[in-house]
Design a protein that fits this description.
41% strand, ten-stranded antiparallel beta sheet, elongated, mainly beta
């Protein structure tokens, strides 16, 4: 131990002498503390099953070409091992000489087995461990030894514990230390050899443990009777100072028995990880090249041997001819070969059920060659058209996994006649022909999906190898989105790790939905049904769809001529590049261009290998009309004779369109029905009124001559140069409802089967009236008595629909009897009647009844229809009062509300219709009968409507409200005469009157009567004048007869009902006493009677004898004649 030098500093002197020091002493240095660098660490070993074997191995190591088992291979494999999605070794690092900083994780132990049948086990995988305690301090010169006798033990795990390791200096420094130790082994006393030489360096203030695995030499240890001694030796001298602590103990040891399993045919790894680098067990992912599968072997005729490139694509030599021989297993990403392996492997596949003899290997190789063709990846490079990179982790139904893998390369597996083959959706020529000549009479049935339900966006999910997560590639059809909006379909791309392949899948789905969604089904005979197989491409010439017959049966043929069955109903083109197809005797289809056609004989260019059989199927097509191609989906035997076939529309250029962004899909015209049609002819228009929902509606009926082959038309119309309205109809007529007065311009186009419009239209201009025509006049008006005070008017129902549905019949009355009454100077007798009325019961009045129709638009009929009644004077009634407001001086002295007496017109009028459309006039006096009687009232009422001014400038209302323009007739005005009655004395303080009611001639009961008239105008430009206004009040003559009465002396007799006898203001009091007549019974000679005190209510009678003395008991009856019934 060394001591730091000490500095002695003197204190400063006093007084005037100098001091020995120069100021304050410097601070002491801070002690050094070495970080605590020794920490106990635990390691976990993970055994992960990767795949069935044998696999190719790790991708990066394979691509870099390292040998399996080499350090470089295992180092490169670290780039493909991901812990919590982070590679152990950075991808840019060298696989040969990586630096420590290139590792994202340190101290990783790694072993791999590739799944071979004879692979060895991975050592160090614990099967069991037995811990034995030691707890002895190991001193220098005093090693500690333990003996192992269990021959099943493969290794010994020695645990060393340092309670502390640090050194304290006098100056306060706290430093680490270093200890060298050895672990030695000897077998059967043969001498120790060092297997571990370790130096522990660092500092720790807490207990620190370190484990050492000592692998035993089993070949020596397992010899009969041999033992193994494990010895721990301390080389560093023991500490002799309390300031240096670096002793250690041998704590325990574990007898380890390793897992002996080799897991043959299973690829797996072991990872030994430091727990200090993880908070929890990390996720592990491995990027590998998977199971090796068989691929086609050397081809026939020295046509070469397929190889596999670095991306797993099988490269087929040009001109390769498969001869049925498969080569040894190798890694590839070809979905056809992966499927073949699953089908034939006896361990994890269906090999115990299916062998090569039950598989059409040629169809698998054909599918493989199409799948491995290089196509643009969409990002400037190229890749295989289809590849299969999938991790199947669970047991799956064979049917499902076969279809999944087959579907990834657009194949359909077919089991037929004991053989499994693949039918691939790939470009191919038609292998069979169908026309109406070789299907049943039901013909071809087509079905498809709605355009609006087809998807416009495909979101394809695939496994992104870069991010090691599921990613999405979105493919959009912008044209379809513009039409139908965004309709998304989510698709999972099975076994897909390529963004380009995912994009092609999405584009293929969009293309199929837009162009290959139509399904055709039909039945055919056995001769065709046994030849056609699912996946085959067929051509159909359907005259019902194409519009022309271009196929049938061959009548006879040579190698260069074909005589067809019919040329009269068949279109045989000689221009526009015609070519003919025919089914040959071997069942194949041959196509040749047409040289000439004469009648029903078609001559071809060149010659066929042999003459077609008579009655075989032929079809012809050219650039104007082509056949439709379909790919067969199912073929089913129906009744032993016929076969049902279902096929899906097929486009041969599909893959060019999907894989080449610059490819333009050629148009294929399959029908002349798609050609533009001519515009229709004979366009006519007629306007009518019809009833809809009990309402009159005007409509314009447009019709035309139909065009052959046209099932839909487009009608455009506009009104008074407005915007055109378009609609489609399926019949040769169209109706426009609620027409208005003005000009309608009409265009009619024809649609063809493809919903294309004709190049021109048929046009028509029509001047419509709408509902502006005035109704016809009322006709056949008659009158018949209904009662003493009522008559019935009858007339013919209106011929105008807008009157009978929503219109009215107006019945007015004028008091004029000379036939000069008009609708304008008459007033409504009853409320307007419904337009479909044909009769009305109205008061029996003297004057003129005038009728008009009004339609639902407020238009009156032009003419007036009327009947005049001139009644004789009724002499039997007693006129109690004749009242004329127009006879007063001055005239019309009653109360006026919004009315005035116009001296220039000598009539009562509305004060100002533009501000007050209604007003009233109350009669100046109240009629008082002096008692309650039934009074006959007859009105005297003469009015006339008129225009306030005849110039437009004098009319202030909006012009839309005008009902008349020329001012000839003011019909928008009216006046009513009303009466209210009371049974009280009207002169008393508060008599109770009834509500006013319309005053038509009739009988009213009451004592008091008051009258008023109401004037109204529905047009501010029109007014009404009342020149005569009044009434005649009369009481009917009444006779009252009694039953037999008995008089006893002077007897007062009361009438059953009071008679009107006059009042001081009406005719004079008692001016009209009733006349009383007596019929006496059984009068004796000289007897007589006397009547006195006759009044409105009765009289007094007395019977007397001849001497003038009153007598009793005389019987009599009376008859009183007077007016009114009280």
């Amino acid at each position: 131990m060394t001591n730091a030098p000490k500095n002695i500093q003197g204190a400063g002197g006093g007084g005037g002498g100098g001091g020995g020091g120069g100021g304050a002493p410097p601070p002491p240095p801070q002690p050094t503390r070495t970080p605590d660098t020794l920490h106990s660490r635990q390691f976990g070993t993970f055994l992960d099953l990767i795949s069935e074997g044998e696999i190719e191995g790790f991708e990066t190591a394979s691509k870099e070409g390292h040998s399996k088992g080499s350090t470089e291979y295992n180092t490169a494999a670290f780039k493909d091992v991901f812990l919590n999605d982070t590679p152990i070794l950075r991808s840019q690092a060298s696989s040969v000489t990586p630096s420590t900083s290139d590792f994202n994780f340190q101290d990783v132990g790694f072993n791999i087995r590739f799944g071979t049948a004879n692979q060895g086990k991975i050592s160090g995988i614990l099967s069991s461990s037995s811990i034995e305690s030691v707890n002895i301090k190991v001193s220098a010169g005093t090693p500690v030894t333990r003996q192992i006798t269990n021959h099943n033990v493969d290794a010994v795990n020695v645990t060393i514990t340092f309670p502390q390791m640090q050194e304290a200096k006098d100056n306060g420094d706290l430093l680490g230390s270093s200890v060298n130790l050895l672990i030695q082994v000897q077998y059967n006393g043969g001498g120790f050899s060092t297997v571990i030489n370790d130096t522990v360096t660092g500092r720790t203030a807490d207990a620190y443990q370190r484990d050492y695995r000592v692998n035993l030499n089993k070949s020596v240890f397992n010899a009969s009777g041999h033992t193994a001694d494990i010895r721990v030796v301390r080389i560093t001298p023991d500490s002799t100072s309390s300031s240096l602590i670096n002793s250690f103990n041998w704590t325990s040891y574990g007898e380890i028995i390793d897992d002996p399993s080799t897991y043959a045919n299973s690829a797996y790894t072991s990872l030994r990880l430091d727990s200090m680098q993880f908070q929890s067990i990390p996720t592990r992912k491995f990027r590998i090249r998977g199971i090796k599968v068989r691929i086609p072997g050397a081809g026939a005729n020295n046509s070469g041997t397929p190889t596999v490139d670095a991306n797993g694509r099988i490269v087929y030599p040009t001109g390769y001819i498969f001869n049925g021989t498969m080569s040894a297993a190798t890694w590839c990403a070809c979905p056809a070969m992966v499927l073949l392996d699953i089908l034939t492997d006896t361990r994890y596949g269906l090999g115990n059920h299916i062998g090569d003899s039950a598989i059409d290997l040629f169809s698998f190789v054909t599918a493989s060659r199409f799948a491995n063709t290089l196509v643009p990846d969409g990002f400037g490079g190229q890749e295989a058209r289809f590849s299969c990179n999938v991790n199947i982790q669970s047991s799956t139904e064979a049917f499902d996994i076969i279809n999944e893998i087959a579907g990834s390369m657009r194949c359909m597996p077919i089991w037929s006649a004991g053989t499994l083959s693949l039918a691939q959706d790939s470009p191919k020529d038609a292998s069979y022909l169908f026309t109406l000549a070789n299907v049943t009479e039901d013909g071809f049935n087509y079905s498809g999906s709605s355009l609006k339900t087809r998807h416009t966006v495909i979101a394809v999910s695939y496994f992104n190898m870069d991010s090691r997560e599921v990613d999405f590639e979105e493919v959009r059809d912008d044209a379809a989105i513009a039409k139908f909006g965004v309709i998304v379909k989510q698709v999972k791309a099975f076994a897909c790790t390529s963004r380009g392949m995912a994009a092609r899948l999405g584009k293929a789905i969009l293309f199929t939905e837009q162009n290959e969604s139509e399904v055709v089904s039909f039945s055919t005979s056995i001769d065709s049904g046994i030849i056609v197989r699912p996946g085959a491409v067929i051509e159909i010439a359907d005259p019902v769809r194409s519009g022309v017959r271009r196929g049938g049966r061959v009548k006879s043929a040579t190698t260069n001529t074909i005589t067809v069955d019919d040329d009269t109903a068949t279109s045989l083109p000689t221009t526009n590049n015609p070519f003919v197809s025919v089914i040959m005797p071997d069942g194949t289809v041959r196509t040749a261009s047409v040289s000439s056609i004469s009648g029903n004989v078609i001559t071809i260019n060149g010659s066929l290998p042999q003459a077609p059989n008579p009655n075989t199927v032929w079809l012809i097509q050219d650039d104007t009309v082509r056949t439709q191609k379909f790919r067969v989906i199912t073929v089913e035997e129906t009744d032993g004779i016929n076969y049902g076939i279902t096929a899906l529309s097929y486009v041969n250029e599909k893959y060019n369109f999907i894989e080449d962004p610059n490819f333009v899909l050629p148009e294929r015209t399959v029908s002349v029905l798609n050609l533009p049609k001519p515009a229709p002819s004979g366009l006519l228009a007629e306007e009518k009124l019809v009833v809809i929902n009990n309402r009159a509606v005007s409509k314009l009926i447009i019709s035309w001559q139909p065009i052959t082959g046209v099932t839909q038309y487009q009608v455009n119309y506009r009104f008074n140069n407005g915007n055109y309205v378009s609609t489609s109809v399926s019949s040769p007529d169209f109706e426009i409802f609620n027409t208005s007065l003005g000009t309608y311009e009409i265009q009619v186009f024809s649609y063809n089967a493809a919903l294309q419009l004709s190049s021109s239209s048929s046009n028509l201009s029509f001047n419509a009236v709408g509902k502006t025509a005035v109704p016809d006049d009322v006709s056949n008006l008659t009158l018949e008595p209904f009662s003493e005070k009522l008559v019935r008017l009858r007339w013919n129902i209106s011929t105008d629909i807008d009157v009978t549905h929503g219109g009215f019949v107006y019945v007015r009355h004028s008091t004029k009897t000379d036939g000069t009454g008009t609708f304008a100077n008459a007033v409504d007798l009853v409320d307007a009647l419904p337009g479909n009325s044909t009769q009305a019961v109205v008061p029996f009045l003297e004057g003129e009844y005038i009728l008009k129709f009004q339609d639902d638009g407020g238009r009156f009929s032009t003419g007036e229809t009327s009947i005049v009644i001139d009644l004789p004077d009724n002499l039997s009634a007693l006129v109690t009062q004749t009242r004329r407001e127009d006879s007063d001086s001055p005239k019309f002295q009653g109360a006026k509300t919004n009315t005035t007496f116009d001296t220039s017109a000598d009539a009562l009028t509305l004060t100002n219709p533009s501000t007050n459309a209604s007003g009233e006039y109350a009669f100046n006096t109240v009629l008082d009968l002096g008692g309650v009687f039934s009074l006959d009232l007859k009105r005297h009422f003469l009015s006339e409507g008129f225009y306030i001014g005849t110039l437009f400038d004098s009319r202030t209302a909006l012009i839309d409200t005008w009902t008349d323009f020329d001012g000839a007739e003011a019909t928008a005005v009216n006046a009513k005469l009303l009466v209210a009655t009371t049974q009280d004395n009207p002169s008393s303080g508060s008599p109770t009157f009834t509500a006013f009611q319309t005053f038509a001639n009739g009988t009213y009961k009451g004592r008091g009567f008051k009258f008023k008239t109401e004037l109204s105008s529905a047009d501010p430009a029109q007014n009404i004048r009342i020149s005569q206004l009044g009434y005649v009040a009369s009481l009917q003559r009444r006779v009252e007869q009694s039953n037999v009465l008995t008089a006893n002396g002077s007897t007062n007799v009361n009438f059953s009902n009071t008679f009107f006898v006059g009042t001081s203001s009406l005719l004079g009091a008692n001016s009209n006493l009733p006349s009383v007549g007596i019929t006496a019974k059984n009068l004796s000679a000289g007897e007589f009677f006397q009547i006195s005190n006759v009044s409105a209510t009765g009289f007094t009678i007395v019977f007397k004898d001849s001497g003038g003395n009153p007598i009793n008991g005389k019987e009599f009856t009376y008859q009183a004649v007077g007016f009114g019934k009280g």
